[in-house]
């Protein structure tokens, strides 16, 4: 099984596109739930970590922190 690695402030690509037209999201909170913010319109969503791992496609931009 492929383990996806992601960190706080990474920009990730999700499998489904957001209605505003982009599928790039910034991880702004991590814990049992993960909060992500749309890079296009600024809308934020909180989803459980296991759902996030399934819906995330890849990391577009890593942070150095």
From TrEMBL:
Q: Which domain of life is it from?
A: Bacteria
Q: Which Pfam families match?
A: DUF951
The protein's matches in InterPro entries, at most eight in alphabetical order, are given as: DUF951
- The molecule here is called DUF951 domain-containing protein
- Originating organism: Sporosarcina siberiensis
